[in-house]
Amino acid sequence: MKKESLSYTVLVYTVLSLLGAAFFLPFYWLIISSLKSQRELFMLPPTWFPKEIQWSNYPQALTYIPFALYLKNTILYCVLCIIGAVISNSLVAYSLSRIRWKGREILFFLIISTMMIPYQVTMIPLFILFKNYGWLNTYKPLIVPTFFGNPFYIFMLRQFLRTVPGELSDAAKVDGASEFLIYSKIVMPLVKPAITAVILFEFLGRWNDFMGPLIYLRDEPLFPIALGLRRFLTLYQAQWSLLMAASAVFTVPIVILFFFTQKTFIEGITVTGMKG
Known about the structure:
By secondary structure, this protein is mainly alpha-helical. The protein is 69% helix and 0% strand. The protein contains 13 helices and no strands. The protein has helices at 2-34, 57-64, 67-98, 104-113, 119-133, 140-143, 151-161, 166-174, 179-187, 192-207, 211-216, 225-228, 240-272. The radius of gyration is 24 Å and the shape is globular.
């Protein structure tokens, strides 16, 4: 039995190590490509480590485009969207899970049903709507919708909120607390893992968002980093080594953020499905 258990453990760790290496390979290739010259980048067979490390690619990449401006736009875009996502989705999820009112299950079903509608279906109608509002070439079409809820976030927060004992709310009501006071002071502090998961999902989605800014933004001073990286791809040539360097700088904050928040993030995801 011990031999079988040891063999199973070795097999599991071997498979996991191979899968981990497979997922790490694209990131490794991005890093080494950012340290190669333009010529070495297209050598055949490809080199797995730069023959001559080009550290100068990084300062050149960050000065080739207005990286600081793009970074400021991206951070502002992410922060405002996170605020909208946390406020709107937590309020809707609280109402659907903690307040008893007629028709809430039907409304929840309709909200979840909208997850089956592809973004490509609503893209053109939304563009026409925001054009009529005069919101094109502004961040309003990208930020304002986050203040009206997201079906996935509502579902995740609702499931997490249903794990919070109802006796806490009943005791607070006996003491004269309002529904909003219960929401803000009692319930929300208990669902920090789920709120953190929403923040991380929203941050990652907006940090990597390319399609939204591409549709609604025209002026370069408004571009986030994801759209600004396109500057490396010109009509006549592409600065691939500089693009790899800028992409590495663009990716590293996400990796660092996940490593520091993975425990809370995983807790928020796993606890979500404990109660239906």
